[in-house]
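ok so I'm stuck.
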Amino acid sequence: MRNNEERLGTKDDQSSPSTLSPLEFVSPTSFVKLPSRGSYYPEGHPLHNQETIEIKEMTAKEEDILTSKALLEQGVAIDRLLGSLLIDKTIKTNTLLAGDRNAIMVQARISAYGSSYKVAINCPACGEQNKHEFDLSEVQAAETELHEGVERLPNNNILVKLSNGWEIECKMLDGADEKRLVKESERKKKKKLPEAPLTDMLNAIVVSVSGHREAETIEKAVAFMPAKDTRMLREAYQAAIPNVDMSQTFECQTCGHFEDMEIPLSAEFFWPK
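replied:
not stuck anymore, here's the structure
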């Protein structure tokens, strides 16, 4: 005979573990303000005129990406990390502008480990090593401006007129460009060739010299460009592109020297001690 609980159907359901619904884990997300405000992406791009982008918080999965020796050697770890963090999977990480990528990286680091970033810095004045703490919550989008003699073209490239009369057209770097720069640096290291980060960067951003777009012409122009003009070009480019301002004040604990410096994005950035 059934007892009352069985007869009335009030007995607790003792379903086996295999019939229970699996747990659903959802990572918190946040919206990152894009330095570009979406203004520099072409029509049809998912970020065209979009001022923010949604990302999820980092998990052990993303930490595995950052510690993968294979991905690091191939120079694709950051791309894989960004691809894992983005909620909108229609966005191709290699099309993200460099400044927007930087903003995402900073926000991802804050969400994962907080805004305090402690790193060892050698004082530029006395050489003593300091343990300095940067506050990543103070990193904001930098204001863009066009220096005298610089104009923005309809395709969002900039045109810089140098003192020697050359007109240099520059594009904004995206993820694909940054990946090529990393691979070129790794190639030179493996072959023990002299590194040339400044020249490589200029070759990456310059798309024409007084209308000439041939790679060979651009490389020769960069190689023979006077130092005053390369400096002018770099400063004009940095002022005109959308990015985050990574500059904060450093003060030496030994000699008292202080100056504004860029927050170093070392390995400790994603692996705080």
